[in-house]
Amino acid sequence: MKKLILAILLLLLPLSAMAANTIDAETYSVTITAIDSTWHYRTSYLDAKYADGIKVEYIIFSPGATDDICLIRDDASDGAILFRAKCADVYDQRIIYFAGQLIKPYLDVTEGAPNASAILTIKISHRQKND
Asked: What is d(CA 91, CA 61) in angstroms, rounded to the nearest whole number?
């Protein structure tokens, strides 16, 4: 039912306002596919308890093509680089561990959006603030 409602809403929005990122924000992970625009963690974690960030266990980037780039910054497009990978080919999967560190992930595509088949997964710690 949620998918049907979302599909109807997307049809009603002007095309210029839509981004093609496909985001699946489960309780303890975020998976982003069809990456072609920026993503900020607050678009998926709206609750006030996430205002200071989310505790991240690890980030995995699975490229979809040769030279795919994944760039994760801290909180904004000018934030410190937390993770940057330029992958040699589709088998050059990259991972970085944060061990539950509190961060504010911001997916930056200014260096180029990855191939549409690339997958970014952010594993969230089970222990968040106020849980």
From this structure: 11
Q: Residues with Cβ < 8 Å from 128, sequence gap 6 or more?
A: 49, 50, 54, 55
CA pair distance 123, 24, nearest whole angstrom: 12
Q: Is 32 within the bounds of a domain?
A: yes
pLDDT in tens, 12-48: 333 333 446 777 666 788 999 999 999 999 998 888 9
**Domain assignment present for 131:** no
Please give the tally of structural domains in the chain: 1
Q: What is the pLDDT of residue 8?
A: 42
- Does residue 70 form part of some domain? yes
Sign (positive or negative) of CA dihedral 38, 24, 50, 13: positive
Amino acid at 6: L
Share of the chain above pLDDT 70, in %: 79
Which H or E run contains 118? none
Residue with tokens 């330029």: 86
Q: What is the pTM of this model?
A: 0.77
